[in-house]
Specification:
Length: 117
């Protein structure tokens, strides 16, 4: 079993920055992909960014150039630096990991990000 704990959400004005962190603990041999998703009220959950164990990154078009994802494989952590935040970035942000051994995925409990205009 793997547990994910997210932190760093909050309220910020448009143009501001926040940094989200997620720490994975439990029965971990190797995490192949670490990701951040978000879900706004009334909308489907969407991928924000992900990063492979080798460091390859992928971003949603809406956040390219503003968000930066990074990970520390030794500490099983993934971070999301969010800059130049916009009101449309308001959502609950979820950490997700996909394991290397069996491809199983785990979700965090989510952290609220609210951007005021």
């Amino acid at each position: 079993q793997v547990r994910l704990v997210e932190s760093g959400g909050g309220l910020v004005q448009a143009g501001g920055s926040l940094r989200l962190s997620c720490v994975a603990s439990g029965s971990i041999l190797s995490i192949r992909v670490m990701s951040w998703y978000r879900q706004a009220p009334g909308k489907q959950r969407e991928l924000v960014a992900d990063i492979t164990i080798g460091g390859a990154t992928n971003y949603a078009d809406s956040v390219k150039g503003r968000f930066d994802i990074s990970r520390d494989n030794a500490k099983n952590t993934v971070n999301l630096q969010m800059n130049n935040l916009k009101p449309e970035d308001t959502a609950v942000y979820y950490c997700n990991v996909r394991m290397s051994l069996d491809d199983y995925t785990y979700w965090g409990q989510g952290t609220q990000v609210t951007v005021s205009s």
